[in-house]
Amino acid sequence: MAEMIAGPRGPKPRRAFSTPNIVLYGTLIVVAAYYALPLYVMIVTSLKTMPEIRLGNVFSPPVEITFEPWVKAWSSACTGINCDGLSRGFWNSVWILIPSVILSIAISSVNGYALANWKYRGSEFFFAVLMIGAFIPYQVMLYPIVLVLKNIGDFLSIFSLAMGMGKVQVYGTLSGLVIVHTIFGMPILTLLFRNYFSALPEELFKAARVDGAGFWGIFFKIMLPMALPIFVVAMILQVTGIWNDFLFGVIYTKPEIYPMTVQLNNIVNSVQGVKEYNVNMAATLLTGLVPLTIYFISGKLFVRGIAAGAVKG
User: Fold this and answer.
1) Is the Cα dihedral 253, 258, 259, 263 positive or negative?
2) Distances (CA, A) of 246 to 23, 45, 77, 254, 261
3) Can you tell me the distance from the alpha carbon of 88 to that of 262, in angstroms, rounded to the nearest whole number?
4) Distance between CA 284 and CA 90 in Å, rounded?
5) Phi then psi for 79, rounded to 5 degrees?
6) What does the pLDDT average to over 192-213?
7) Which of 134, 143, 313, 170 lies closest to 254 in space, CA to CA?
8) How far is residue 86's CA from residue 75's CA, in Å, rounded to a whole number?
9) Could you report the per-residue pLDDT of 274-294, keeping only the tens digit for each?
């Protein structure tokens, strides 16, 4: 009875419109608007006609919505000497992306699993070398990689010619670019997988060893089913990095197999004819749709994986 008279205990409920809440949400709204404004301008510009764009008001919504700039950006915009839009570059990027993501994640997951649970002589040195590779500027490695790809092609050509087949070329092909993306993705992905597997209960690993499970048995039956979040993180990181890459694409391929980002650059920086800003904006949005779509589909798993794999271990 005395407790009922005294009233409820505990901290006083915070008001919804308190000063800290107003400052916090106000700051978040301003920051969100700052980052969303360029996207808004790109979208509304891509839906306008050129006469409307020349009026000069970039923030106004389109008076008459048109999807012609999107169609032209995809199928008929000139990217150098070719005028087939981004469609060819899109499929080139797809053929680069899929094997690069699969190979880099598969190799890095095994590396991280081995470094976390199967210590061997020299494992720490191997891990240190991988981490050094993660922080070497790409520009330093450009020319050495050209020589490596050329030498790999020459080495494979010896066996190919001995078997009566043609000469093998790796540099300047999609296969060569896949090798480059796979190698450069391994260091940071290995770190993520190692930290994630190190954070899993060690008792699971020991129990599996007692039951007679080997290296691959533990990996496929125990580790992989528990590693979905970090696989999603690795996939998003690789998809974003590979799809948005321009430097490797322009150096290690040729015009016939340029990825989508290189063709986008050729469209936007073209000096021939009228500058079609609506087509440029549509081409930019088309190029960014793939990584954005993957991120929005798997955003929650991405946050879980980053929290588990990036700050532990």
Assistant:
1) positive
2) 40, 24, 19, 13, 6
3) 11
4) 12
5) -120, 75
6) 86
7) 170
8) 6
9) 788 899 999 999 998 888 888
Burial class (CB in 10 A: 0-12, 13-18, 19+), 156: middle
Q: How far apart are CA 24 and CA 84, in angstroms?
A: 48
Rounded Cα distance, 134 and 55, in Å: 48
DSSP letters spanning 38-91: HHHHHHHHHTS-HHHHTT--TTSPPSS---HHHHHHHHT--BTTB-STTHHHHH
Taking the whole predicted model, whether its pTM rises above 0.70 is answered as yes
Q: Are 75 and 299 in contact (CB under 8 A)?
A: no
Query: What pLDDT, on the 0 to 100 scale, is given for residue 291?
Result: 86
Amino acid at site 151: N
CA–CA distance, 1 with 7 (Å, rounded to integer): 10
Domains and CATH numbers, the chain: 87-259+286-309 (1.10.3720.10)
Residue 311 has a pLDDT of 45
- DSSP designation for 121: T
Q: Sign of dihedral through CA atoms 60, 63, 66, 72? A: negative
In angstroms, the first-to-last Cα distance of the chain is 53
Show the CA angle centred on residue 220, arms to residues 217 and 226, nearest 5°: 125
Considering just the CA atoms, what is the radius of gyration of the chain in Å?
A: 26
The 10 Å Cβ neighbour count of residue 119 is: 10
